[in-house]
Amino acid sequence: MSKEVENLWKSEDYWAIWFSVLLFGGIFAGLISQVAKIGKWVGNPLTALSGQYLGLALLCAGLGVLFTAGVAIMKGDWKGFLGGYLVVFVLSVIAFVIAGQKSLKAWGLGYALWALGFGLIVANTVGTPKWLLRGARSEMFIKTGLVLLGAEILFSKILQLGLPGLIVAWVVTPTVIVFMWYFGTRGLKIQSKTFTIIVAAATSVCGVSAAIAVAAACRAKKQELTLAVGMTMIFTVLMMVAMPALAKFVGMDPQVAGAWLGGTIDSTGAVVAAGALLGEHAEKVAAVVKMIQNVLIGVVAFAVAVFWVTRVDRDPDAPRPSLLEIWYRFPKFILGFAGMSLVFSFLLIPTLGGDDVSAALDLSKHLRGWLFCLAFVSIGLESNFRDLWSQLVGGKPIILYIVGQSFNIVLTLLVAWLAFGGVLFERVYK
Questions:
Q1: What is the pLDDT of residues 189-223, one digit of tens each?
Q2: Is residue 84 domain-resident?
Q3: Kindly report the CA angle at 112 between 106 and 116, in degrees rounded to 5?
Q4: Which of 77, 147, 210, 413 could be bridged to 205 by S-S, CB 3.0 to 4.6 A?
């Protein structure tokens, strides 16, 4: 256990929790009262930065100090990290600016796609120098963002839809994961089991966040994660545009359509945007169904970690892995994700009130967006097109995603109709 105590200060998983606690501490103490936000623009990209220069400088400095201190305590090269981090931050700002263009924003081409693209361009043209890679701590950024995401999953909102919402989110999701796992490993015979489970999680749960959590649980390669994230973001844009249009065309019930969108589109922002096209009720149902589904990030990551230790990575001739070994393999930042949800739902809201908590979460959402953007730039900088192409040979990854997502779309529509169409339950909104 002494090793585990030592890991409290040397493990990136634990530091994702400490970083998040410090950030929320700064928010509730009033030290963080604003977070720089890139605006929209049409013809001149500099208008997106209007009035934000000081805020961006403070954000860069604040996150830089926080993460540099963590890297130093973890006995990392903090000087090297700081130099690379500054460039990663600048690329993140550029990604947000491009994503703020009015037409691109309307099409759902968000910052994540641009951030990943910029990183890939650098890595596969001039090549990512070693000093820059020291600041591209993708796992540290994304794990911290995921812990912050946990605070946004409030049980009071989950209960708004009751049993119908739980059925759509929690029955379909594991069914799709199991289907895609067997289809990928036995039907398509994809050699990389880690890649298969990452794509299955991204498709069935909530896209990028689930993919990263599961990748940590099964210790996947960065190239596999990059490919899964890239496919997910591209298809998310297509689904965000096509699915609401189809729902309108066939005259689908708004609540059924909302549950359908919330259970299939792999991004919370895209879900809300798509639901808004179908009206207020569809938007509310879509957003809450996606939030309920997001709860499964921790559950799925835990299940994958256990499955990998006991089945996939286990030597058939070796003894059954102990609970301690499973604990060592378990991604600890998931504890922070779950803990934040419980603390905010059952401690902070009753004591501080909904308004104060909502104000704090509004700031943390912006911080999470910046952390995710830093992570996507870093993932791109760490990835190589040659390795990505080797994963695509034969087209099996694309087939896995398309077949799996098609199964997900059809099954979710059926369950959404049963749960929200007045078949099994009374309608949520009269």
A1: 998 899 999 999 999 887 788 888 888 888 888 78
A2: yes
A3: 130
A4: 210
